[in-house]
Design goal:
Elements: E1 17-19, H1 42-51, H2 56-63, E2 64-68, E3 75-79, E4 92-94, E5 97-98, H3 106-110, E6 113-122, E7 125-134, E8 148-150, H4 151-157, H5 160-177, H6 187-197, H7 200-208, H8 212-215, H9 220-228, H10 230-244, H11 255-262
Antiparallel strand pairs: 1-8, 2-3, 4-5, 6-7
């Protein structure tokens, strides 16, 4: 999350041009990696926990903290910073910069661009429009470099578009939950939201080691994909969230499970 004082209030499109370069010889190198509140997405967690060869539970415990969003009542997670004066990133420990650079979170990939989603009314439905903006912090000298970009070419170079694709459905859920009149989540649903969004290994156990598959009618092909592909499991988690949050009938309960509950 950015301090709004450093956000330029101009909406950018993919073809907006700018010049920027970050490198280890620039005086401000890694200053943007400290004193920040960096919210993580589900795909961020998947990439980071695998990079560090940790379970999702271990990663979340060691490297993140959670906060309940006052507006939506969703639990969101943030990357822990070191307890030094600068609140430095725990993964920036060497002169060369980020230790997990190829698996860095999407917010780091976008910098010095920010990305957000706008809710717009179109005919009888609400649509979500992604847009971009410049982040200009006083310490950042990257804008003084001469490497030319467009927003689109920067996103491609930083592989931000892959992260956007992976997180888009999850972000859509958040936007729909932020509409007026939505009921606050109780603690049980907050726990489920946290698990399905971030704690992938516990979510796997929830699906495969409980009565979940006895209750919900899920095609065998999808079940096998989830067993062998973490991205498929993550995306199924989004489907479960829609069901949990009463946004869609995204899962179907087996008739025998309904009958057993009534009986």
């Amino acid at each position: 999350m950015f301090n709004m004082k450093v956000v330029q209030p101009t909406k950018l499109d993919p073809e907006t041009k700018f010049k920027f370069r970050c490198h280890k010889d620039i005086k401000c190198f890694t200053k943007c990696c400290s004193n920040i509140d960096l919210m993580l997405t589900p795909y961020d967690v998947l990439r980071l926990k695998n990079r560090l060869k940790m379970s999702s539970e271990e990663f979340l415990e060691k490297y993140t903290f959670s906060k309940i969003d006052e507006k939506s009542s969703h639990p969101y997670i943030y990357l822990k910073m070191s307890k030094d004066e600068k609140r430095s990133c725990l993964f920036v420990t060497s002169p060369g910069g980020c230790d997990i650079y190829t698996d860095r979170p999407v917010s780091c990939r976008y910098y010095p661009i920010g990305q957000a989603t706008l809710k717009k009314q179109k005919d009888d439905e609400v649509v979500h429009e992604e847009f971009y903006f410049f982040v200009r912090e006083e310490h950042c000298l990257g804008y003084e470099e001469n490497t030319p970009w467009t927003v689109a070419s920067w996103r491609a170079d930083q592989e931000a578009s892959l992260y956007d694709e992976m997180n888009r459905e999850w972000k859509s859920i958040l936007m729909r939950r932020n509409l007026p009149g939505k009921i606050e989540l109780d603690p049980k649903k907050q726990t489920q939201f946290y698990m399905a969004s971030y704690d992938l290994d516990n979510f796997r156990r929830f699906v495969f080691d409980s009565k979940f598959l006895d209750v919900f009618d899920i095609e065998r092909e999808e079940i096998e994909k989830m067993r062998n592909d973490e991205v498929a499991l993550m995306k199924f988690g989004f489907k479960y969230l829609k069901y949990l949050l009463l946004l869609e009938e995204s899962l179907k309960v087996k008739p025998e499970a309904i009958k057993a509950k009534k009986g």
